[in-house]
Structures are given as C-alpha cells and as structure tokens.
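Page 42, continued from yesterday. The earlier attempt failed because a stray header line got pasted into the input along with the sequence. Redoing it now with the clean sequence only.
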Amino acid sequence: MTPRIHPIALRADGMSACLGGVPVLHDIHLALPQGQWTSIVGPNGAGKSTLLKVLAGLLPHTGTVSLQGQSVARMPHRLLARQLAWLGQNEATALDLTVWDVVMLGRLPHQAWLAQPSAADHQAVTQALQSTQAQDWCGRTLGQLSCGERQRVLQARALAVQAQVLLMDEPLASLDPPHQADWLDGVRALVAQGTTVVSVLHELSMALHANQMVVVAQGRITHQGLSMDTATHRAIEQVFDHRIAIRAIDTQWVALPQSRSSTYQRSIEASSLNTATV
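This time it went through. Structure tokens are written below.
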C-alpha cells in the first residue's frame, strides 16, 4: 500500500534564532505534515521551546517560517491568531478572571473590536471546557484552582480558538495520569478532525503516541521520522545518552529509564563481547 502523502502545514527553511544575543537554533529545516500530530523531544536546553515559539511567530529569526505556504512573519496578526493556536509554558494569566472569561479569550481573534461574544463564541467555549472537563468551574476564578486545573483551563482556551494548527509547549505539566490520558484522547480526536498538532513533551512515553517525532539537540534537528520506526527510537535513545530504552509493551511503545550503573554494565558487556569476537 502506498503511504498517504500529507500536505505541509508548517515549514522552516534555513531558520536560526537567538535569545539574548546567544544563538539557540541553528539552520533549522523542518516540514510538519498537515492533519498529523508531531512531538518534539530532546534533552533540557536543546531548544525545543524556542523552536515552537519561532514556529508560532513569537520570536524573531533568520530564514523563513511558513504556515500553509504563507510567511508567518508577514501574516496579519489576527489572521495568524485564527489559524494557529498557542499554549505555552507557565503562561501569565490574571488570577482574578473567571474560567469562562479566560477561555473566551481564545475567541478574540474571531471577534470584531469591542463586539460582544456571538453564539458561535459561546458554543466554542462550552465545547472547549467540556473537552478538558473544566465546565464545572466556569464561575470560579483561576486563582481558586490548582495548578493542574489551571492547565486544563489554559488548554481549553487554546482549543476555543478552533485553529487549523495547535502548538503546545509542555501541555501535560501538572496533570495527573488520568488527565494525561484524557489529553491524549483529545489530541487524537483533533487529528481525526484534520487539525495539525505540534507538541513539546518531556513525557517520552506519551510523545511516542504521536504520528511523527522531531528530535532536537543543541539547537539542531538530529532526526525526524515516524514514531513507530526503529530509527526514530534509536535517535531518541542516543540524544538522551542511552539513559532511556524504548520498548514495546502490549500494543504501545514506552520509554524506560536506565540507571547509570546499568548503562555502564551494558557497555562493559558489549566491550567484552567485541573483544571476544576479534
């Protein structure tokens, strides 16, 4: 069977970026397929969050970044905000705003200046709150919620945009395992509807559920491939200095932590085996 070819939703060509004058991303070439979920993984300080922010049009850069063929830098802000939704890490939001008002912020790109929310806005907000199981908190302020509950409200705000592309930086932060599983179901539902999802995740076993994975190290892309491919698994293990091992358990791939002692022992065994075969 011939594999299905997906159009490209987001593309970066020769893109580099700095933070505080320090180079962080170097000559990035990346093509993210439309209607697929791509997870970006890599060690701390690799440049994952910076990469996501540049793709979202939030940071200056050299080279080009395009959204469905249009330069992100040249797109009108309101148009970009309708087509691309963003969920960042530790986003500052007024804690005295009600949950309903926070999620309604996601509808601002669709509203005329000073216009009252429409029926479509109310429907989008209600649907987003239901999808994150946050509908019971509508009248509560953000400051009255736990960190995990706030994270679900911020996810609802991003969902309320109803954008074609959704970028999420560490969306599982503060979520307990059941709600992480709910998030996974939600992403799969979005992809089934044709939404392009791009996530930065530290939870590698969750990231392995994505359609594709992008591996980043030292500001460069070291690998891009299908999550189920052996080459992708080896690239992930290598970028984490073989401190994890990707294995199949039941019907899914998981990343298992490896202690330094076990890693050292395997290297000794491998060295002994090589010596014996010489």
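Notes: The two ends are 43 Å apart (CA to CA).
Reminder to self: strip header lines before submitting.
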